[in-house]
Design a protein that fits this description.
By secondary structure, the protein is mainly beta. The chain has two helices and seven strands. Strand 4 and strand 5 form a beta hairpin. The two termini are 22 Å apart. The N terminus is likely disordered.
């Protein structure tokens, strides 16, 4: 009897889930523009089952990005920085149009930038691994 194949490591993330109460408040404050509402997590690292979960449990939503074609994201600052260790930007994929994927948020932020909010919005984050 053989072992089942390992799950796809790229579907495994380490980072932060949004606190459920804060998620609901953010959804009211920033109504999703596209029909698929994601609003789930902030990624620290993906594809590494050995990654250590982060220690921070708070962050701030400080900006928004939208390509106008179906990818909307909220930019997040954690421990004073928006810079993820892999060189991308901490964010929450907020909403998507049909055919678009959450991973596209990184490219939208990198190529188009983001618009800052007048005031940061504090959020609680649940540090943990998640995925398959």
């Amino acid at each position: 009897m053989s072992e089942p194949p390992p799950s796809d490591p790229k579907r495994f993330y380490t980072g932060w889930l949004l606190d459920p109460g804060d998620r609901e408040a953010l959804l009211r404050r920033f109504p999703p523009r596209y029909p698929e509402v994601v609003a789930h997590h902030v990624t620290l690292k993906f594809g590494d089952r050995a990654a250590v979960p982060p220690i921070n449990t708070t962050g701030e939503v400080i900006g928004q990005a939208d390509d106008g074609l179906g990818v909307e994201a909220l930019v997040v600052r954690i421990a004073g920085s928006t810079d993820r260790p892999d060189g991308s930007t901490y964010h929450i994929t907020w909403s998507l149009a049909p055919g678009r994927e959450a991973r596209e948020s990184n490219a939208v932020i990198a190529s188009l930038g983001w618009t800052g909010l007048p005031q940061p919005v504090p959020i609680r984050l649940l540090a943990r691994p998640f995925g398959d």
